[in-house]
Design a protein that fits this description.
- With 208 residues, the chain is an alpha/beta fold.
- It is built from 7 helices and 11 strands.
- Helix content is 33%, strand content 25%.
- A 7-stranded parallel beta sheet has the order 1-2-3-4-5-6-9. Strands 7-8 form a two-stranded antiparallel ribbon.
- Helix 3 packs parallel to helix 4.
């Protein structure tokens, strides 16, 4: 609940990249959230949790389901509860018909066993017009994440404002929103670089 009352804008960085300790320290110095991926069945990311704890960062774990069994979720919940610290757990989206039921059951398990963990529901920008159908429900979701990829062609970066504004308008009064943004800085169409334009686009979106 305390996480959902956060009114500040937080920024984060993926720690799965092959950064050296020095590079991660430099890149993450002004970040609030550390992010990692966890595939269902992987060992618990104890090193990642320790890294977050040492650096006083909020952990965001993106869980990638495989067989939709809740045994792994039960174990994960118990391990996360032992830290007694705020954690964001995103259950990665899937096209499987089993996904929504798995999400709801997993959310119930996490909320019961690890109350300091906030559950994140994510949706890609190309599915934003299906929010009403895909959304698991307010009682299961604490935060919402929108995954946006903006490509480029020879004329520049291709932007599509609808998914962002639609998602914000849908959830702005009920849920904190995470924007996971990737912007192309190069296109094979004409073999052009758009590094400055990509940086400006990232700045523009996160300043909204």
């Amino acid at each position: 609940a305390a996480l959902c009352e956060q009114t500040d804008t937080l920024t984060g960085i993926y720690t799965n990249k092959d950064y050296s300790e020095a590079e991660l320290g430099q890149l993450a110095a002004n970040q609030d959230i550390y992010i990692t991926y966890l595939t269902q069945g992987d060992k618990f990311p104890a090193d990642f949790m320790a890294l977050c704890s040492i650096n006083d960062k909020l952990p965001l774990i993106i869980l990638r389901p495989t067989d939709y069994s809740t045994d792994y979720v039960n174990t994960l919940a118990s391990r996360l509860a032992s830290y007694n610290m705020p954690v964001l757990l995103q259950i990665d989206s899937s096209r499987s018909a089993k996904y929504k039921d798995f999400f709801r059951t997993s959310a119930d398990i996490i909320h019961l066993k690890a109350p300091s963990v906030a559950i994140v529901w994510g949706i890609s920008s190309d599915k934003a017009d299906e929010i009403t159908t895909l959304y698991p429900g307010d009682s299961y979701v604490d935060w919402v994440a929108l995954n946006i990829f903006e490509g480029a062609d020879k004329n520049g970066i291709i932007t599509e404002p609808y998914p962002l504004y639609h998602t914000i308008s849908y959830f702005e009064k009920s849920k904190p929103i995470i924007i996971n943004l990737s912007v192309a800085s190069y296109t094979y169409d004409g073999h052009k670089y758009f590094i400055n334009e990509a940086a400006a686009e990232i700045t523009r979106i996160y300043a909204l």
